[in-house]
Structure formats: C-alpha cells, structure tokens
Write a structure and sequence with these properties.
The protein has 7 helices and no strands. It is mainly α.
Length: about 160
C-alpha cells in the first residue's frame, strides 16, 4: 500500500490527538471504518512514527533548553564582571569600604557562574550558606578587623 495524501492527513490528525489518541477518533473524523484506520496505522507505522517524532521533539527541546541556559549563564557572568569593575572603581575612589569577606563572596560568585559541573555548583551553594565570616576572621588577619571596625564605626 502506498501512503497517499489522505493517509498523511489522517496520521497528522492522529498525532495531534496527543497521549490519549485512538484510532476510533481518526475513523470518526475522516468518515472511514475503524478497520481502515487500523490498516493505515499498521501499514504506515503510525505508532513507530509517533515515537520517533516525540523523541525528535524532546531532543530539540533539550537542545534549546541547554542553549537558553548557556545564554543566561553568559549574561549573568557579564553582570557579575560589570559589578566587580564598578566595585573596584568605587574602592579605588574611596567611596566604598569593602571587607575581605565581601571580596571573597564576589570571587566565589564569579567562580560559581564559571563552574560547568552542577555538582560543584551544589557544593558551592552549600558552602555559601554555611559560610560565616566571623569564623574566618583569623584567616583574614588584622587588616580585616581594622576595615570591619571602620565600617562598624561609620554605621
């Protein structure tokens, strides 16, 4: 049997019915017997074609989602870099007093946005939530205490 135009239209209708599709719906729409539609479905591999089309659509959507994620990540990286430049300029001009903890957070954010491995991002988020600058004040030395004291006095 050669697939003709009405067979193709019937398949497109069948596909368009979605998950709950039934040959009986096609028969009713096209005014033919259920047996005829079953024959068309077997002869032209409708169930296989539905699976192939669904797989292709899923693949296309996954590719688009990945591209969108990459674009969002690139945009976020640019925003963070612009923020770092603005903060650096404000620090150089003496308009902003920044602690080492603040700088550490910015650097970690930039690293987070650069990280490709989702597990590494998860690890970073956990570390970020658990991060307490007071616990790390010894590592930052007297310079940190002095800048923090200046900031506290000005508030």
């Amino acid at each position: 049997m050669i697939e003709q135009e009405h067979h193709k239209k019937a398949f497109e209708f069948y596909y368009g019915l979605g998950e709950g599709r039934k040959y009986g719906q096609v028969a009713e729409e096209f005014g033919v017997s259920l047996g005829a539609v079953k024959l068309w479905g077997r002869s032209f591999g409708w169930k296989r074609r539905v699976g192939e089309r669904d797989a292709e659509i899923a693949k296309t959507l996954a590719h688009r989602n990945k591209e969108d994620a990459v674009e969002r990540l690139a945009r976020n990286r640019k925003i963070v870099k612009m923020g770092l430049v603005q903060v650096a300029k404000a620090i150089a001009e003496g308009k902003v007093k920044v602690t080492l903890a603040d700088l550490d957070r910015l650097v970690r954010l930039e690293e987070f946005l650069r990280e490709e491995d989702p597990q590494e991002r998860t690890r970073f988020v956990i570390e970020w939530k658990e991060y307490d600058p007071a616990e790390h004040s010894e590592e930052m030395g007297d310079e940190h205490h002095a800048s923090r004291a200046t900031t506290d006095e000005e508030d």
